[in-house]
Structure prediction request, 140 residues.
Amino acid sequence: MPERDDPDTQTLPAEAGIVRNFLEASMKPDPDLAATFMAEDVVITFTGGREFDHPSGPTGFNAGRYKWVKKKMDRFDVAEGKDGVVVYSVGTLYGEWPDGTPFEGNRYVDRFEVRNGKITKMDVWNDSAERILTRMGIDA
Prediction:
């Protein structure tokens, strides 16, 4: 499948549209709506190697890490994979730390596997841990 730089849902391959809809539901946050885009046996591997089987896991984790957080989705890269279509969402996070200090430009990459119209696997990486260390005065 071709790579797309336009994150507009109408121009995305179907699998990237599923991922975008999932991410939008996750940012509300509405983990139950987000779960409708995922297979029942989904595996979500979050930052630090934390594993979850429902979007409520990352939502709960993020509630302790941020006052609020959203994604600026810059692009979706789509390719055929061994176990379905692989979709990468690449962009930056913005929001507020628990003390209300705003942040932006926090890089993220989310990797999804989509099969039969459902997300079966999700892997999440971002720069939040390094930014938290910097806020603590530790040069990571």
In short: Confidence is low (pLDDT under 50) at residues 1-6.
